[in-house]
Amino acid sequence: MSTINYNETIPNNVNLSEDKTLQRALEHWQPNYLNWWRDMGPNGSLNHDVYLRTAINVTPEGWAHFGHVKMPEYRWGIFLAQAEENRKINFGESKGRDAWQDVPGEHRANLRRIIVTQGDTEPASVEQQRHLGLTAPSQYDLRNLFQINVEEGRHLWAMVYLLHKYFGRDGREEAEALLQRNSGDQDKPRILEAFNEETPDWLAFYMFTYFTDRDGKFQLNALAESGFDPLSRTCRFMLTEEAHHMFVGESGISRVIQRTCEVMRTFGIEDPEQVRAKGVIDLPTIQRYLNFHFSVTIDLFGADQSSNAANFYTSGLKGRYEETKRDDDHLLKGQSYRILEVAGGSLVEREVPMLNALNEVLRDDFIRDSVAGVGRWNRVIEKAGINFRLSTPHKAFNRHIGGFANMRISPEGQVISEAEWLSKVRHWLPSEEDRAYVASLMGRVIEPGKMANWIAPPPVGINRQPIDFEYVRFN
Ligand SMILES: [Fe+2]
Ligand SMILES: [Fe+2]
To answer: Can you cite a GO biological process for this protein (predicted)?
Structure first.
């Protein structure tokens, strides 16, 4: 069933009305979710009419319907990608058997943990971004922020559905707890560290959606391979929404770079102080933000060696990125993978069992994918004839999880002393002063078609609307 039933309190394509107990449980959770949205969702936005897309159908063609809606009235619901007939488990010790339509008892605890950890990131990012609407550089950008926020809200719905349907009372308790933890909260923080960081300004927002939403892409792809079919189908549909989030990040940074380069060229300036004096963001500051978001995000993949990762794979719960496109035995026993570690004052490779290194495998896939976009940003700089290139830092730089935690490693991958780190860190990571400067540029621009001075307009609007379309009506 690909079409979504919008006649019910909770839109869905899972025949929710046939399971009254589940329907009642979710209808009981719904007002708590809406309260969370009012308290922790986008600040000051409840009355805005926002030009949003809503899913009407889960097939790849034309699932999106666009129109102005007030966000609290957005039709959050439960949408699973279409079932694949006779789908099998494609890896691990149950490889070749039918995919599970219910939770196998022996994997219940691990699956619940996987779903809760994924689910926790979704509302966390809405909380992290809740003040950004007050400083949006244009209506177009404001609309994109809100689109991402409502979809992250829907991703929470996706995980809550799985918890309610397949995990009984424990699942219902976990679903409540997902609304009780809050990003950055002293007593009840979100589970993963990167989701407790603030997203204080729009440069950080674009970096977050480029890098951290891409972590989402890789985690969801790995879970889309799961032998637990409802999780796979949920993640496959979530991925269609995730693409837009990364687009907002990539194109946002690209527009910031374009504007900076225009100003540098017009005035023939290169010195960051002179560039700042013109009210745009100098390229070294963009590099420092990139370093920060890249390093914080790759921590999300977890320790480089992990017995949990091996377990999740062997038991068929979480695959690799594009598992079925790889031509190996999908068991990985006896295979090895090269990880890096510090020995004798430098980074050296070491072969370890691949099953234990699956976090690192996924992290390396992520790194390859994110480097590609950085290349596209560099072409904007190159085209402007400016002699500067952005790059992703070495994967050992500024890590807080895994073997490099608390080691001092430069963006080029040199093991360095604490003293050297301290003397150079302000060139590598955003300083208080960088953040204060970027914050000083943030002011709300609400006139249709107008852009803040520090960012170029997008080449095209949303859904083929003009750039000066009224994407948000403030009422
Ligand atoms: Fe998400
Ligand atoms: Fe996302």
So the answer is: phenylacetate catabolic process
- Residue 342: inside a domain: yes
Closest ligand to C-alpha of residue 122 is 1
Whole-number Å distance, alpha carbon 160 to ligand 1 midpoint, is 13
Rounded Cα–Cα distance for residues 340 and 86 (Å) = 40
The count of structural domains within the chain is: 1
- Residue 192's domain is classified under what CATH number? 1.10.620.20
Predicted TM-score of the model (pTM): 0.96
Grouping H, G, I as helix, E, B as strand and the rest as coil, residue 391 is coil
How remote is the CA of residue 353 from the centroid of ligand 2, in Å?
32
Distance CA 32, CA 180 (A): 10
What is the model's pLDDT at position 377?
98
Residue 396 backbone dihedrals phi, psi, to 5 degrees: -90, -10
Taking 60 as the threshold, does the pLDDT of residue 265 lie above it? Answer: yes
* Residue 6 placed within a domain: no
451 Rama class: left (phi>0) / alpha (psi -120 to 50) / beta: beta
- How distant, in Å, are the alpha carbons of 2, 90, 421 from that of 417? 58, 46, 6
Is residue 331 scored above 60 in pLDDT?
A: yes
Q: Ligand 1 centroid vs 218 CA: distance in angstroms? A: 11
pLDDT tens, residue by residue, 272-283: 999 999 999 999
Q: Is the pLDDT of residue 1 over 60?
A: no
Element (H, E) at 346: strand 346-353
In sequence order, what are the residues at sequence separation of 6 or more whose Cβ sits closer than 8 angstroms to the Cβ of residue 312?
A: 110, 114, 318, 358
Residue 410 is predicted with a pLDDT of 98
Note whether residue 9 is domain-resident: no
Which residue type sits at 169? R
Residue 258 lies in a domain: yes
CA dist 276 → 280, 390, 457 (Å): 5, 18, 19
The domain of 135 spans 16-473
Q: What percent of the chain has pLDDT over 90?
A: 93
| Ligand lying closest to the C-alpha of residue 214 | 2
Q: Per the structure block, which two tokens stand in for 108?
A: 């219940």
